[in-house]
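ok new one. same drill as before - structure tokens go in, u give me an amino acid for every spot. 219 of them this time. try not to just spam alanines like last time pls lmao
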């Protein structure tokens, strides 16, 4: 399946634009997001990504800690989290966090062009909301680490336990800020991933693109 981009000017289009534009070095042919029906795939080098020789690390960070993952490591890390979040999500914020994870799909966004910072997440307006949001991320991480639905991946992610453990420690030690934003890189309520892929029972890329991460894997 070829992922199709959102309509130009829509809230989903603006969200993808907000995520990508600050993170990339533009070349002339890369300046515009696609029109309706065009692929969302990017051929850009992310400033967030860290290059070690020929290897690129996508960075997930928060509270002074970093999780630097290769493209393959990022794919496994994000996919097991999406499987867990798809089955745990129940509140509006959960589906916004799911959308953030979906936007890390390198088959759509481009290799070496993903990653996020916990400081950029809208954790909530009051302390109880922030505590609940943080707890959801930790519960999803624990469920992912249990091997939840890994059999559906089509491969075994051998190092993902370490990635999840490091991410868990990062989140545990992170104090969600009280600031209300703006949070340009965190999906808003109208960008939440509330649709489920009927075939795979995984939260899909709507409103950004059609299908879930299994739908968009190369054949």
């Amino acid at each position: 399946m070829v992922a199709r981009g959102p309509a130009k000017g829509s809230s989903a289009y603006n969200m993808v634009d907000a995520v990508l534009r600050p993170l990339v070095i533009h070349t002339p042919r890369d300046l515009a997001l696609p029109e309706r029906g065009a692929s969302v795939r990017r051929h850009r080098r992310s400033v967030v990504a860290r290059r070690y020789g020929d290897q690129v690390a996508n960075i997930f960070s928060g509270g002074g800690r970093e999780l630097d993952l290769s493209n393959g490591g990022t794919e496994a890390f994000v996919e097991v989290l999406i499987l867990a979040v798809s089955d745990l999500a129940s509140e509006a914020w959960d589906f916004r966090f799911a959308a953030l994870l979906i936007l890390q799909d390198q088959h759509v966004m481009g290799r070496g062009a993903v990653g996020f910072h916990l400081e950029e997440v809208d954790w909530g307006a009051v302390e109880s909301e922030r505590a609940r949001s943080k707890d959801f991320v930790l519960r999803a991480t624990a469920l992912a680490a249990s091997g939840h639905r890994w059999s559906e991946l089509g491969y075994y992610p051998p190092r993902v336990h370490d990635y999840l453990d490091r991410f868990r420690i990062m989140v545990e030690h992170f104090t969600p800020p009280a600031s209300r934003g703006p949070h340009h890189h965190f999906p808003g309520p109208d960008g939440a991933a509330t649709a489920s892929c009927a075939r795979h029972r995984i939260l899909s890329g709507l409103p950004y693109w059609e299908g879930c991460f299994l739908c968009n894997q190369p054949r």
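The beta strands are 50-52, 55-62, 65-69. and btw The first strand starts at residue 50 and ends at 52.
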